[in-house]
Design goal:
- It is a single chain.
- By secondary structure, this protein is α+β, with helices and mostly antiparallel strands.
- The chain folds into two domains: about 5-80 and about 225-245, Phosphorylase Kinase, domain 1; about 85-205, ATP-grasp fold, B domain (D-amino Acid Aminotransferase, Chain A, domain 1, 2-Layer Sandwich).
- Helix content is about 30%, strand content about 35%.
- It has helices at about 45-60, 95-105, 130-135, 145-165, 215, 225-235; strands at about 5-10, 15, 25-30, 30-35, 35-40, 70, 75-80, 85, 85-95, 110-120, 130, 170-185, 185-190, 200-205, 250.
- Strands 8, 9, 10, 11, 12, 13 and 14 form a seven-stranded antiparallel beta sheet that branches.
- The longest helix is centred in the middle third of the chain and has 23 residues, at about 145-165.
- It starts with a strand and ends with a strand.
- About 35% of the residues are buried.
Length: about 250
């Protein structure tokens, strides 16, 4: 496998130089983390790569701009290089996770309407919840940017809610990241990072079984099987399950 310069490494992914200017290669790892907890979910990177590819292509079909170009192999995809907006945008449909804890809501309660939250992307601070005032005051994004981000987020929520409903899954909540894509004198905001069970809560409609990273967070059994079930219902589980291969060699 060719040697590529590593640009960034997080818990779940590594970014490498792309084959052309303005592109990156996004490599999906099996590592998982939540606060102080660390672990490995075997085959997660392969499944998330496939699921992310499927969902990004579906969003493109309805006119949602993303950084995704194409999947390269079992663990890698080619993406456009963007200027990441330092926000994690969380769309919530059902009370769960930190929202349920903060507001004392029973987990699983349907919210009166979909709620969008903004979190400042700063892992060492725990990605704190921030308001539009914070965002515009610190120039992380403009009011116009936020209007566009909210519009895109709600469209994605409407689309994904229907898509998952069709395969018997309840879309509880999910997180999005956005970036600025520059071309010539033009700039547009696009969906970046990934969309996968790592940053979504997905429950079986009939049983409320969790099919996402909460299985890891809550020490439930059969963590990888939750990811596999999502891929199976989407019709994209690789033949014979999530095959694997070693990651690329890098130079720093």
């Amino acid at each position: 496998m060719s040697r590529r310069r590593q640009i960034y490494e997080g818990t779940a992914k590594v970014l490498f130089e792309g084959p052309e200017p303005g592109t990156l290669v996004q490599y999906f790892k099996d590592d998982a983390a939540d606060r102080e907890k660390r672990g490995t979910i075997t085959g997660k990177g392969v499944l998330n790569n496939r699921i992310c590819e499927f969902l990004m292509l579906k969003l493109a079909e309805i006119g949602i701009p993303t950084h995704f170009v194409r999947r390269l192999n079992m663990r890698e995809q080619l993406v456009r290089e963007v200027e990441i907006i330092p926000l994690r945008v969380v769309v919530r449909n059902v009370a769960a996770g930190s929202l349920a804890k903060r507001l004392g809501l029973p987990e699983g309660q349907q919210l009166p309407r979909s709620i969008i939250e903004y979190h400042y992307k700063k892992a060492e601070l725990g990605d704190p919840l921030v308001s539009e005032e914070h965002i515009t005051a610190f120039a992380w994004a403009s009011t116009q940017d936020l209007d566009e981000i909210m519009q895109i987020s709600l469209r994605i929520n409407d689309f994904l809610t229907g898509l998952f409903l069709g395969i018997g899954i309840r879309l509880v909540d999910f997180g999005l990241e956005f970036g600025r894509l520059y071309s010539d004198d033009d700039m547009r905001i696009v969906v970046a990072d990934e969309i996968s069970p790592d940053n979504m809560r997905l429950w079986d409609i009939r049983t409320s079984e969790k099919l996402d990273k909460d299985r890891f967070r809550e020490d439930l059994e059969k963590v990888a099987e939750g990811y596999q079930e999502v891929a199976r219902r989407l019709g994209i589980l690789p033949e014979g399950g999530p095959a694997d291969f070693k990651g690329p060699r890098t130079i720093q």
